[in-house]
Design a protein that fits this description.
It contains 18 helices and nine strands. The protein is α/β, with parallel strands linked by helices. It folds into two domains: about 160 residues, Rossmann fold (3-Layer(aba) Sandwich), CATH 3.40.50; about 230 residues, Rossmann fold. The protein has a five-stranded parallel sheet with strand order 6-7-5-8-9, with helices on both faces. It has a two-stranded parallel ribbon with strand order 1-2. A two-stranded parallel sheet has the order 3-4.
Amino acid sequence: METHAFWDTSDEENERPAFWRFWRRLAPKGKIGILFGSWYTQPIIERVYQRIDRARFESALDRINRFEEMLSRDGALILKFWFHLSQTDQRKRLKKDEKAHRVSPILEKFSKRYRAFSRVSREALERTNCPQVPWRVIPSANNRFRDLAVGEALAEALESRLDNKHKKWPAIRQTRSQAVSKSSVFDSVDLGLEVSPELYETRLADLQNEITEWSWRAKTKKRSLIVVFEGWDAAGKGGAIRRLTAAIDARLFQIISIAAPTDEEKAHHYLWRFWRHIPRAGKVTIYDRSWYGRVLVERIEKFAKPGEWKRAYSEINEFEDQLLERGILINKFWLHISPEEQLRRFEERKSIAYKNHKITEEDWRNREKWSAYAQAVDDMVEQTSTVQAPWTLIAGNDKKWARLQVLETVLSTLQTIG
């Protein structure tokens, strides 16, 4: 069992999206996490003190609904208790605490706005109460009654879950991936594009110099950047990442290489391991493979059930919306090559001794599923390419051309900070 209290936010937490501090403390599957204060605390306080208007307050509550639905669909049992205390009983307790010299300045301050907190909290409970994740309002003037009520609710909820009698969410609607697509996102990618070695060296140096300058400007303005690399095996992700990181001070970036999840990662929601590495203000996180594995390899290899990868599109969009809302810049790259070029690179890796480690039986097996992966990529781009976080499809048959396109796109994104 893990217990966490959420009141004020730290500097580290303020530099990241609001839900980051909750994601990093989520209890593993099969464990119990107890939160004193939660994702409701900050929106309620900000609304009471009129730091946010009604529209932003309702938007925050809607985001909470989606967050709780995502956790619940993944198997989490969420119990929400609201301990109700009348204003009269609250005053009695504060006076008692004051005599014992243990009164909290925060509670004393909040108690002066009891009516405002009561009104805003009631709105929050009404908007976030649903059959699958209901609120349980517990009268708390009598400590014994409160404790028994909580214990009974816990026992009832656990028994209902074990007996599989809990209220379930409706099934996710079918996505376009179930239909046959006549066109492909790859149709617009010109794999014949290439650049001369001389022009490549000149342009590479220019781009890296500019990225160096703009990455420090982003640091000064506390604007973070996330760069996602996906693509076919042997498409050149590693080479593109090396050219990008050569332009950024080592103190400003981290590279997260995604492989099969560890036992610890499997014990959490699949997005948990990506939330952990969200950069602080002014920093850069580069993901070599990413959360899109849920709708690619996990879909194709059946590591995720159909219901899981189908709902992942909206979960991923919600995740990226939170990053964008916090001011984080996002670049998402798919490095595309032809099947013939992939085969040439595979054979090269097989025949050259110092490249042998880059080719495995898994690569050859994945190649046989090219059509299935192509369909999955089509669906991924259609479902998750948004105005603020679009996919950039990189023509990768010429590695040098691909690297320049990646750097130019990252530079253009950094320059949006002004």
